[in-house]
Fold:
Amino acid sequence: MMSLFPIPEPFVHYLAQYHGTRDYFECHEIMEEYWKEKKEAAYEGSWLVLIRIAVMQYHARRGNGSGAIKLLAKAESEIEPDRMDELGLDGRRLKQMLARRRERWMDGHNVVYDDFNLPIADRELLEAAVSRAEALGAAWLSPGQLADESVVHRHLARDRTEVVEAREASIRSRQKDRKQGGAD
Structure:
């Protein structure tokens, strides 16, 4: 079924974390790094949908219903089932799953975390992801409700130094540009 060969290692790692450790923040990090490297790839939108699904799960488990709904809506509107099929997922089923979840959640007050298992259709991809999860010491399809607090609140441990420094440099650059523009 899968036409994307070889299977990208970050995708396998994403699936292993997603269905094994249930570390959705790590899933986001893995796929975001890969997406940034492959900006012009035909699957750019698919990688973004997978990022959004992981972040949706992260927000839902932490009780951020409005954040989860926003990511769900974006993933549902952006998913291309045929592209997901090419990645080894069942794209139509995934689109239906997203729609059912949106209907169930409706607004941020109805958001309840549960494991949202991605429908992997390709046997080779499934075997690779299961094997990778085992290598991580995680059981495949482990219940996300049992994740420890360090996984549930992973963003709190993130080193944001580079992000803060980049933001401050950008502000300084804009201020410098404004000063130079006003000096003419």
Q: What stands out?
A: The chain has nine helices and no strands.
